[in-house]
Amino acid sequence: MTKKEKASYVIKELLKIYPQPSCTLNYNKPYELLIATILAAQSTDERVNKITAELFKKYPTLESFAEANISELENDIKPVGFYKNKAKSIKETARILVEKYNGTLPTTIEELVKLKGVGRKTANVIMANIYGIPSIIVDTHCKRLSNRLGLVNSKDATKIEFELKKIVEPQLYTIFSNLMVYHGRAVCKAIKPKCEVCTIKDVCEYFKARK
């Protein structure tokens, strides 16, 4: 089985379990997804959603984030970790979006990654979910599962993204990425993965090595 065939098989099998995989961060406005994704670095979507439920009420506009008191904003997002850097990134990014982009989000990866606190993962989240452009989103789950399955052999997120682009059908980039998140949370956990109930273990290099 080639890597392309394996990727196709994995998608087909996982769609039987998770038929409508979608972004698991809550948002109503495009910039809210950007802020939520910045907050999600080294945290969990579940924790971020709890924080943003109140955060987006307190700061109802992009301008309110740009004008936020930095100490207060730090305190508001403290539970997600790395709150000092994240608060700076959110405030500065909000200011740039208001001043340079008239409150809208840039439409290219190249422009998005120029924003403070925005790397390729966050940029791809925006491209996929706001602009509907299929994108490979390499988060911790995608990185772990892609390596365990033997689709890639790297810890570098950018390398993984471009390797996966060679073997996943372009129109399925986002679906593949979301499936990695769903399956990573439910079954292929970082610690104590539930290999015995995994429906794709027959093509998994990690499982074969454990036997």
TrEMBL record:
Task: Name the UniProt key words of this record, in alphabetical order.
Answer: 4Fe-4S, DNA damage, DNA repair, DNA-binding, Endonuclease, Glycosidase, Hydrolase, Iron, Iron-sulfur, Lyase, Metal-binding, Nuclease
Record protein name field: Endonuclease III
The HhH-GPD domain is annotated at 39-186
Enzyme nomenclature, EC number: 4.2.99.18
Cofactor binding note: Binds 1 [4Fe-4S] cluster.
Q: Which reaction is the catalytic activity of this chain?
A: 2'-deoxyribonucleotide-(2'-deoxyribose 5'-phosphate)-2'-deoxyribonucleotide-DNA = a 3'-end 2'-deoxyribonucleotide-(2,3-dehydro-2,3-deoxyribose 5'-phosphate)-DNA + a 5'-end 5'-phospho-2'-deoxyribonucleoside-DNA + H(+)
Recorded superkingdom: Bacteria
Does this UniProt record's set of keywords contain Amino-acid biosynthesis?
Answer: no
Asked if the record carries the keyword NADP, the reply is no
Name the coenzymes or cofactors required: [4Fe-4S] cluster
One MF annotation (Gene Ontology) recorded for this entry: class I DNA-(apurinic or apyrimidinic site) endonuclease activity
NCBIfam families found in the cross-reference section:
nth (TIGR01083)
* Function of the protein: DNA repair enzyme that has both DNA N-glycosylase activity and AP-lyase activity. The DNA N-glycosylase activity releases various damaged pyrimidines from DNA by cleaving the N-glycosidic bond, leaving an AP (apurinic/apyrimidinic) site. The AP-lyase activity cleaves the phosphodiester bond 3' to the AP site by a beta-elimination, leaving a 3'-terminal unsaturated sugar and a product with a terminal 5'-phosphate.
Query: Which sequence ranges form a coiled-coil region, renumbered to this chain?
Result: none
Q: Which CDD domains match?
A: ENDO3c (cd00056)
Question: Which EC class, in a word?
Answer: lyase
Provide the binding site for [4Fe-4S] cluster: 188, 195, 198, 204
> Of which family is this protein a member?
Belongs to the Nth/MutY family.
UniProt cross-references to Pfam families, sorted A to Z: EndIII_4Fe-2S (PF10576), HHH (PF00633), HhH-GPD (PF00730)
Which biological process annotations from GO are given for this protein? base-excision repair, AP site formation
